Amino acid sequence: MFFYLARQPILDRHQKLYGYELLFRDGESNAFPDIDADIATSTLIQDSELQHTLSEITDHCPAFINFARGGLLTSLPTLLNPMEVYIEVLENVEPTPEVLTRIRELRNLGYHIALDDYRFQSEWLEVFDCISIIKVDLQAYTFRQLQALKYQVRDYSIELLAEKVETQEQFNDALEDGFSYFQGYFFSRPELIKRRRINPTKAACTELLAETAREEFDFRRMTVILQRDVALSYRLLRFVNAAAFGLREKVTSLQQAVVFLGAAEVNRFVTMAVTAALTDDKPNELIRLSITRARFCELVAEYHQQPKVQPNQAFLVGMFSLLDAMFDEDLETAIRRINLSPAITQALTQRRGLLAFYLGLIRCYEEAHWRKVEAIARRLQIAHNEIARMYLQASEWAQEIIPTDYRNAESEK
Length: 413
Description:
Helix content: 40-55%
Domain EAL: 1-204
Number of helices: 19
Structural class: alpha/beta
Pfam families: EAL, HDOD
Protein name: EAL domain-containing protein
Number of strands: 9
Radius of gyration: 25 Å
InterPro entries: dGMP_Pdiesterase_EAL/HD-GYP (IPR014408), EAL_dom (IPR001633), EAL_sf (IPR035919), HDOD (IPR013976), RNase_Y/CdgJ (IPR052340)
Strand content: 5-15%
Mean pLDDT: 83
Strand order of the largest sheet: 1-2-3-4-5-6-7-8
Domain HDOD: 198-386
């Protein structure tokens, strides 16, 4: 399963790359689909930030992301690192008191704000001190309107961006008119980007939505449900360790993440992560295998009882051991996006430490490398019958969550 987006470069006066506007896509047609703007923004952020990172997609340049009124007034913008993004307020957003207050709040949090196709509504003047860029559609603005805009921004630190620059002549005219940034087909059409997506299972999504509806938030129950799904686990750790939270120490377990975030933030994460996932009907067998590994490693840690190894760390090692196959990229790149503890990272990328032995044990068991299984079992002092018992228990646990015939059951609905 894949997700799609397009990026169109934004250049400075010397035609050097400044940033990219990111545009939602739902397939390879490279055109904006018939979809609500808030849903498009939410899905784009979920896919680009909670699974990959914006800096990967924009080559470490600023990302301009469109926000309609609904998304702007929610906490969705704060999922993004203010050092990496411009909050681009769409032209159909009315400057109501709620919108103006929200813009000031976001600016105080360090976000840069861009107005798309400013239409000279006087209310916007109240937040001109919060605006960094105003985008001007060269195909729609008259010469008189442009002069009026330049007069209005003269006392503010607002730069102008020329949109829909399609010819050399238009670029030259925009340079003379004092524009600082430029975007349009003259430089580049939007480039389609296709990336691997791993989606949560519908079973986990349904359970999580039910939990968010409860009057009393159950931290333990929420953690248990999240542990059953590799996609949700991965995204939650990306979410909690995002730069916007300014953490001094890494959050390295799901239980720690849930407790740290608290009920409101966890429910917000669940709502965002589940919304797009419920549209996908194609479960991945890799997910079931990763869940089996996660539970097996956790059981081994509980049996082994080493003070330096926590069962929840072992669980994450098994859970994330197949990210390379899920994302079609090397494991180190995928792991780098999550601030895991050194012990987990070393186990996954360098195969070092006790956690690496736990993971190696189930890998060898899966592949029927019995001599290696025997060697690791001796190292960990685990009897063969215990290994078989734990593997069977882990397999049954994964089977309950994602049955083998899940794909067929879903397709018959």
